[in-house]
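Dig into what follows:

_____
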Amino acid sequence: MNSESRIEILQNSVRRLLVTNTVENARALLRRFQEVDSFNAYVHERMPPVLLAMLIMFLISLACVTGIVTLLPDMHSALILPMLLILPVVLAGSFLIQIYVFFSWLEGRSMERSLAPRRKAPRGVLANWVRSKLNLDLGPVPAVPWLPAAILLFMPLLTLTYSWRGAAMTFIALGILMPIAYAWVDR
């Protein structure tokens, strides 16, 4: 029995790291968006800033692709074909990860709005700092699929930082400031 529970714990740990769990969570989030009226109404009422945030996320995904394009061919010419094959994966993957985290965050914000006095989720360090300095409520911290985000978002941005530091810092700043600007518009 003890070995079975250890195997289950190990399987659950591995499953959390794999993309399949993220895909299942994204499907569940999409289902909740379709079925929960308060979440759907929250997003639709704020469509202009949501679309602007999605545009910024798409630009960050393009920056991820640019990081790969500017670094890998300079390393070795044999990397050009594999680079061309992974570019669509990085573009789509980084964009979908950002969308997943953003809509998870929006879901938390909409839940807090609908359950206002009854439920307040714990805030992260950045959210507490923003609240004290800017008087903005960022809302609850969303779940982040760290392994796919590291591979499809952070590593390409790191390659962009290596090859084109100014552009990388601009897109990283956009990624950090976008939720703060959204929270400011959504007061």
